[in-house]
Amino acid sequence: MADVNAFMKALKQARLAEAAHLDAALDLRDARVLRLDALRDALLPQLKLNSQAQSLFELSVQPGVKPRLWLDLISVIEMEPDPKTYRLLQGRQGARECLFETRDADQMTAYVLKYLAHRLIAQDKLSSNLQSLPQNKAPLGRYGIWDLAYVWFTGVLLGALGLLAWALAIGRVQF
Questions:
Q1: Positive or negative, the Cα torsion across 147, 152, 155, 157?
Q2: CB 44 within 8 Å of CB 59
Q3: How far is Cα 134 from Cα 70, in angstroms, rounded to an integer?
Q4: What is the DSSP letter of 163?
Q5: Distance (Å, rounded) from C-alpha 16 to C-alpha 136?
Q6: Exposure letters 67-83 (e unless 16+ CB within 10 A, then b)
Q7: Residue closest to 66 by CA, chosen among 20, 28, 98, 106
Q8: How far apart are the C-alpha atoms of 57 and 116, rounded to whole Å?
Q9: Segments of 72-153 assigned E as strands
Q10: With contact defined as beta carbons under 8 Å apart, do 120 and 147 qualify?
Q11: In the chain, where are the structural domains located?
Q12: Residue 102: helix, strand or coil by DSSP?
């Protein structure tokens, strides 16, 4: 009976330790989310000054096991490797590249504003390059009967030549 009580006591202590561990993990995650929210709140007034920046950048905090502040589709800020270190990551060709890491929220805010400004300029450049491409002004019309006949005849001819080549390859036809 004493062994059962000792086991029950050990099981209770293990459960309490696990609960304390989960509480600490949740507190760390909550601390990360709060820091990312504070960073977002510092960035939002700056972005509200530019309507194009508002439409391009998302600035949304994604809570979860690893909370993240999404800047746009390829840029994210995480609190890694500890809950006090901000890390700006950018997705590039299947991997994430660390662009900047600091424990100071003001430094991260300044760096992110510069980064977003460069992304905005790159987007403007891309838009202007796309607009400067020559536009095909020829109207898209329907195909005429002779165009369709030509394509059909070419397909039949290539198919027949392919069958002839196959027959020669397997020895069914000999010249």
A1: negative
A2: yes
A3: 35
A4: H
A5: 71
A6: bbbbbeeebbbbbeeeb
A7: 28
A8: 8
A9: 75-79, 86-92, 95-102
A10: no
A11: 8-128
A12: strand
What's 73's DSSP letter? S
Q: What is the DSSP letter of 135?
A: P
CA distances in angstroms from 112 to 38, 57, 78, listed in the order given: 14, 12, 13
Q: Cα separation of 61 and 83, whole Å?
A: 15
Provide long-range contacts, Cβ within 8 A and 24+ apart, for 29-35.
29/63, 29/65, 29/67, 31/79, 31/83, 32/67, 32/79, 32/83, 33/61, 33/63, 33/67, 35/79, 35/83, 35/84, 35/86, 35/105
Per-residue pLDDT of the chain (175 residues; tens, 9 = 90+): 566 677 666 766 766 666 656 555 556 667 788 888 888 888 888 888 887 877 788 888 888 788 899 998 889 999 888 888 899 999 888 888 899 999 998 999 999 999 988 988 988 888 777 777 776 665 667 788 898 999 999 999 999 999 999 988 888 877 6
